[in-house]
Amino acid sequence: MSTILKVNDLTAHYGSINALKGVSLEVEKGEIVTVIGANGAGKSTLLKCIVGVMNKSSGTVEFEGNDITRTGSDKIVRMGIAMVPEGRQIFSELSVLENLKMGAYTRSKKEDLTPDYDLVFGIFPKLKERAHQKGGNLSGGEQQMLAVSRALMSRPKLLLIDELSMGLAPVLVESLFDALMDINRKGTTIVLVEQDANMALKFSNRAYVIETGIVAFSGKSADLLEDDRVREIYLGG
């Protein structure tokens, strides 16, 4: 496998607050890597720094061997990284189809998007039934499906997902994780920030545990599931 993402000694601040204190991680092409940790640990900050919507104080980010530390977020999307933001942030007044079209804004206006609609509707059949409904009228689970699908419309090589399970019923969460596995099998590498550590570790290849802006543990997800320290702090013993 080849390395698709490399984060080296990244630091970031919110004003005087040091949110990341030298985080390093690597993601191999084809993996699902999860980042877990308590609220305020710096997980979302890490994703925002990778995708270029937040400034880094120091350190570097490399994508497919290219330094993207100072690259703008628009160019980063064009290079092949897409993000599903925390809280979904869909366009509530636009229809499902219009939301999906917004996700394809980096693509050529002449390009036929039919194969992409077919792809996301194949992964999330419910969205096809709701294609002409406003995003704001969808259930929470359907909105999360739409947020993931909108990101897929840019045909990313690397998909960053911030809090997939937030506010959703367990049965829905499991189906969303199954969909992620499907997306991954189709060739997209995934980095997942997730509060449901148990579920995230079960569905990922490797994991990083962030505590107050530093990587406290890392390793194969299966190993971390059995690690007494991780179990005690994040998996309820």
Describe this structure as you would to a colleague:
- This protein has 237 residues and is an alpha/beta fold.
- Helix content is 37%, strand content 27%.
- Helix 3 (96-103) runs parallel beside helix 6 (140-152).
- It is globular, with a radius of gyration of 17 Å.
Offer a quick outline of the entry.
Helices cover 37% and strands 27% of the residues.
Pick out its properties:
single chain, 237 residues, alpha/beta, Rossmann fold, 10 helices, 10 strands, 37% helix
Task: Explain the layout of strands and helices.
Layout (H helix, E strand, L loop, with lengths): L2 E12 L2 E12 L3 E5 L6 H9 L6 E6 L2 E2 L5 H7 L1 E4 L11 H8 L10 H10 L1 H5 L10 H13 L5 E5 L7 H16 L3 E5 L3 H7 L2 E6 L2 E7 H6 L1 H7 L3
Parallel strand pairs: 3-8, 3-9, 6-7, 7-8
Antiparallel strand pairs: 1-2, 1-4, 4-5, 9-10
Q: Low-confidence segments, ≥5 residues, pLDDT <50?
A: none
The CATH topology of the domain at 1-78 and 195-237 is given as Rossmann fold
Question: Percentage of helical residues?
Answer: 25-40%
Question: Helical element count?
Answer: 10
Q: How would you describe the oligomerization state of the chains in this entry? A: single chain
Radius of gyration: 17 Å
Strand order of the largest sheet: 6-7-8-3-9-10
Overall structural class, as computed from helix and strand content, comes to alpha/beta
The first-level CATH class name of the domain at 1-78 and 195-237: Alpha Beta
CATH architecture of the domain at 1-78 and 195-237: 3-Layer(aba) Sandwich
Largest sheet: 6 strands, mixed
SS elements, strand count: 10
Instruction: Determine the strand fraction and express it as a percent band.
Output: 25-35%
Distance between the termini: 34 Å
- The H/E string reads EEEHEEHEHHHHEHEHEEHH
